Amino acid sequence: MIGSTFQPDEVLCCYLNTLTQEYKTIRYHKKEPAHIMSVTLVGDEDGKSPKSKAWIMYRIMRTPIIGDKFSSRHGQKGVCSRLYPTEDLPFTESGLVPDIIFNPHGFPSRMTIGMLLEFMAGKSAVLHGLSHDGTPFQFNDDYPAVEYYGQLLKAGEKSQDQKIFSILII
Questions:
Q1: Angle ∠(8,11,16) on CA atoms, nearest 5
Q2: DSSP structural state of residue 66
Q3: Whole-prediction pTM value?
Q4: Residues 43-55: pLDDT tens digits?
Q5: Secondary structure of 51-69 as H, E, C letters
């Protein structure tokens, strides 16, 4: 079932081999628990034969370690170069500690301004309990996205007292 958790060596699925009339089981062979995200039944390309395969997509939760590579949806890639203890991280007057620290010099050279706008939109959505529309052409030169999200962040900054995902630009 979607959402279920599997431990190592548990049975993922069972199928009937139509040639031998025997039931076969597929076991989960990884060493860490996994959560089932989706199950898709597929058949032939023409769609005329019955569905004969199952694609099972699962998610494995892992703690980042040094050397892990990450990428945003905008193609901005980076490697986890260091893990700091919380005590060694900078913090705001209210005690907010950043979850990610990155260098802003990567934005102009890679032209991934959309990533910065996505950060602003995400944080403002969390502050105000909103869901932003991310489709293009929502803003124009007279009404830029930076101004809109900036105003939301300023308004939320005054009333926010809970821990949320934060980013420090150095």
A1: 150
A2: T
A3: 0.49
A4: 777 767 777 788 8
A5: CCEEEEEEECCCCCCCCCE
